[in-house]
Amino acid sequence: MSEIRRRSLVTAMLAGGALPSLAWSQNAATLEIGVLPNISARLLLAQYQPLREYLAREMNRAVQVSTAPNWTAFHQRTLALDYDLVVTAANLARLAQLERGYVPLLSYAPNIKGMVVCASAKPIKTVAELRGQTLALSNPQSLVTMRGMQWLAENGLQRDKDFKTVNAPTDDNVGNVVVRGDALAAMLSGGEYRAIPDAIKAQLQVLTTFAEVASFVVMASPKLSAAEARAIKAHLQGFAAGSEEGKAFFASSGFAGMREPAAGLMESMDPYVEATRKVMAAPG
Prior knowledge:
By secondary structure, the chain is α/β, with parallel strands linked by helices. It has helices spanning about 5, 40-60, 70-80, 90-100, 145-155, 175-180, 190-195, 200, 225-240, 245-255, 270-280; strands spanning about 10-15, 30-35, 65, 85-90, 105-110, 110-120, 135, 165, 185-190, 205-215, 215-220, 255-260. It has two domains: about 5-110 and about 215-280, 3-Layer(aba) Sandwich (D-Maltodextrin-Binding Protein, domain 2), CATH 3.40.190; about 115-215, Periplasmic binding protein-like II (D-Maltodextrin-Binding Protein, domain 2, 3-Layer(aba) Sandwich). About 40% of the residues lie in helices and about 20% in strands.
């Protein structure tokens, strides 16, 4: 795969700083971090700039952040070992662990809220009103959507039988789909809701928060040695533990911190493994 194609969507490189480092030298290979495109590339680039700057300075090493046009392409690049680190959804993290030997380093806090929103101009009171209607999905391959489909089924609503779905082109404009009337409501995560432009968000209201699911996981590629992975993890913990760059990242992203993965976190994704493989293999 060509370098231009692989990093076509969003790529940023920071040269290593002048500070000394015990772990890295200025001749070290660029550290590439792949970030799941759960929001638009423009917003991801802005959010992850503080992390790039911090790691480049502290490790005295070039750091690059990349994403992909969609979740499937990102996951394919993950499995192809295109990245040294990935920040990805917990269900995709489990697949990467099982299929390619990625190692979980940290998970984001807090957990991710699953939400349903509707237009303020056409409010709905209960989820039952979705019967015979269209539901917009910001990220149809997400853990929030998988859990959301379970929740709707528990409420007597089966996808493609009782309601249909439409996929939004990008999650930061899923609100437009609802405001235009192309869908009665939208299902999305708290972070995706946060990414909706204020002018659109002002025309929406939250119907319900139906669940909380595991947050994103930072995974180390099997290309990295155990010592490299430990060193990078320590830098990430420093970033999250009160650095100015960390404060800026958490303020813009809506996350609150990075923590050790909870015991059993990865195994808790096993019920979603086959469904995740299926949606990742589906065309479009």
